Amino acid sequence: MLVQWVMNEKLLPLILLGVSFGGECGAAQAPAVASVTPAPAFDVASVKPSSADARGQSLLMSQGRFTTENEPLKGLIQFAYNLKSDDELIGAPGWVDSKRFDIEAKEDAAFVEEAKNLSSEQRVSRIRLMVQALLLDRFHLQVSHQTRELPVYALVIARGGPKMTPTPVQDLPPSRTTPPAPGDTPPRRRGSGVRMNGRGDLMGMAATMDVLTTVLSHQPETGGRLVVNKTALTGAYDWTLKWTPDPGTSMAGPGDAPPPESTGPSFFTAIQEQLGLKLESQKAPVAVVVIDHIELPSAN
């Protein structure tokens, strides 16, 4: 079964502009010249339609490589632009959901070396920009950015308070704690994120509330709505969340087996009973990505 890790990332600017001016005081000035730093891009990339009988799906990052198997194009766009919910993507044609692709992309040697000094968050942000460049090159994807008033779910603290376990500082990954003092024993570190063991079965490990809202936004039970964090909780937490998937909702791909039958609580009830949180329906301004143009890719 695919183990999917979700991390809280901030998208870096796609283009950095610098302006230089020529001439001296009292003399005619040369026109302002804008120098554009090229967007990061993969060194080489192969994009192929997935086999019709492929099972499961994956989107993986490893040192020097970015790969997908049977990944819907919609999921690739959502990863590239760090979108948490379906509502944040506007104007997608229907085939964006149904067309799936296998991608094998390699980073150039310079970035692989540079990435050794980046935090995991910084590295993933750079990979997102590379995927944006790939989508532009192979799918001719053009987007615009807008803000729209949309229904959302606000994640708030339920009566009785949170029921999650705060992650001990010594267990936090390197990017979330300070280095040990000279002579001290290095602290124990482990991964952070959310492990999906199957539909209706999630486990959080050193997960922040922003990571939790990202995962909840992707569940079919939220109906494509964005889940926003209004808990005011700033720490990292360990937790488990198990519920009975709603009939008719599925995250499965072609050929995947349906989730097993269960007599557990509903999605919304489980969040309240097991995490001490709850989802409230609200409206809020949401930054959205609008697809202005997209095409199926030509052969490699």
Please give a structural write-up.
This protein is an alpha+beta fold and 300 residues long. It has one domain. It contains 6 helices and 14 strands. Strands 3-7-5-4 form a 4-stranded antiparallel β-sheet. It has a 4-stranded mixed β-sheet with strand order 6-14-8-12. The chain has a 4-stranded antiparallel β-sheet with strand order 9-13-11-10. α1 packs across α4.
Topology of helices and strands:
Layout: E1 17-20, E2 33-36, E3 44-49, E4 58-62, E5 65-72, H1 73-80, E6 89-90, H2 95-98, E7 100-106, H3 109-115, H4 120-139, E8 142-157, E9 165-166, E10 193-198, E11 201-207, H5 209-217, E12 226-229, E13 237-242, H6 267-275, E14 277-293
Parallel strand pairs: 6-14, 8-12
Antiparallel strand pairs: 1-2, 3-7, 4-5, 5-7, 8-14, 9-13, 10-11, 11-13
Helix pairs in contact: 1-4
Quick overview of this protein structure:
The chain has 300 residues and is of the alpha+beta class. It has helices at residues 73-80, 95-98, 109-115, 120-139, 209-217, 267-275, and strands at 17-20, 33-36, 44-49, 58-62, 65-72, 89-90, 100-106, 142-157, 165-166, 193-198, 201-207, 226-229, 237-242, 277-293.
Q: How would a textbook summarize the main sheet?
A: 4 strands, antiparallel
Which value, in Å, is the CA radius of gyration? Answer: 22 Å
Quaternary state of this entry equals single chain
Order of helices and strands: EEEEEHEHEHHEEEEHEEHE
Compute the average pLDDT.
Answer: 81
